Amino acid sequence: MLPAVMCVIACVVLTVVVSARRARVAFERRFPPISDAEFVMRCSPNVDPKIALKVRRMVAAHFAVEYERVHPSTGFVTDLGAD
After folding, report:
1. CA geometry: angle 22, 30, 34, nearest 5 deg
2. Which of 81, 77, 80, 69 is nearest to 28 (CA)?
3. Nearest of 29, 51, 28, 27 to residue 40 by alpha carbon
């Protein structure tokens, strides 16, 4: 009985790891690295660049994603998995 349970647990863990890897690859494909200048250019008009870049740093740190991959269009729930 114990080997069967261990096999099921191993399969579940493997499925979670593979799913997380696929999600990461999809995120990296959708959000290639961009510079601060390009980030500010993509922001809405009248956005203070200093505040926008500070928010970008905080989002990258909080969600443990590469700073250069945080875009103005990045969604908290859909792209970063916040819920």
Report:
1. 125
2. 69
3. 51
Q: How many residues does the chain have?
A: 83
Alpha helices in 31-73 (DSSP H): 36-42, 49-63
The stretch 29-57 carries a mean pLDDT of: 96
Which has the closest alpha carbon to 70: 83, 82, 52? 52
Residue keyed to tokens 């905080």: 58
Read off the pTM. 0.75
Task: Give 23-38 as a DSSP string.
Answer: HHHHHHHHS----HHH
pLDDT of residue 83: 77
Asked if the model's pLDDT at residue 54 lies above 90, the reply is yes
Residue pLDDT, tens place only, 59-69: 999 999 999 99
